[in-house]
Amino acid sequence: MKRWIAVALLLCILCTGCGLVPLTGGFSDLPRGFSGSYAGLYQSGDAGKGVYDDDEKIADESENLYAEEFMVQNCSDSKKSAVEIRFAKFHGKQQCFVVNTEDEELCRITYELKLQKGRMKLVFVSEEGSVFPLAEVDAEDARDEVVWTFPKGRNRLLLVCDGAEAGEVRWAVDRPDCFNEGTDELEPVPEITEGPSAFSISV
Questions:
Q1: pTM (2 decimals)?
Q2: According to the 3-state scheme, what is the secondary structure of 51-96?
Q3: Which phi-psi region, left, alpha or beta, contains residue 45 (left: φ > 0; alpha: ψ -120 to 50)?
Q4: Is CATH 2.60.120 the right assignment for the domain spanning 21-173?
Q5: What are 103-141's pLDDT values in tens digits?
Q6: What is the predicted pLDDT for the residue at 191?
Q7: Which residue from 30, 71, 74, 158 lies 20 to 30 Å from 19 (Cα-Cα)?
Q8: How many whole angstroms separate alpha carbon 170 and alpha carbon 122?
Q9: Where are the alpha helices (DSSP H) in the chain?
Q10: Other CB atoms closer than 10 Å to residue 35's CB: what's the count?
Q11: Under a CB-based contact definition with an 8 Å cutoff, are residues 116 and 110 in contact?
């Protein structure tokens, strides 16, 4: 009987796409804006072909990616917005933040990246379509922060990958309004600090 219950629970997880990768580091306790996962394979556009080294394709608003076992969790509080992404395989781009500014504004961006294979970068895209890399890794780990000047208008922050496998992305923007609008009760977003990573991945 216990065996059948376990099988039923497993089928529920696979059908809903939830629980594939448990969130740690306090993210699971935060108010959720958007969360989603692809239990198996998902692709759109040209499946991410030629996106990584093509600024025009990166800046394009249309979805263009290939992903396997992909999970994203957004969260926000009164001071910042954060996102945590994990995947088995990812190729192409995923928009993470939209920052609307009425005037030029300085904003701190904090990130932590982990990758076992391929290439991965975080990029800034201005309203005019100009693309600037914020961070990039090749099968390695990185953790840092940058103070970035957001020009007036609609600015976007994207994750872009090329043949990436077993990856983790955790980054935060010191703006509370990048997503999760309408949340009444907000909890603190955990800081990304120096030292051992707050989470690990096993794919």
A1: 0.72
A2: CCCCHHHHHCCCCCEEEEEEEEEEEECCCCEEEEEEEEEEEEEEEE
A3: left
A4: yes
A5: 999 999 999 999 999 999 999 999 999 999 999 999 889
A6: 52
A7: 158
A8: 11
A9: 2-16, 55-59
A10: 17
A11: no
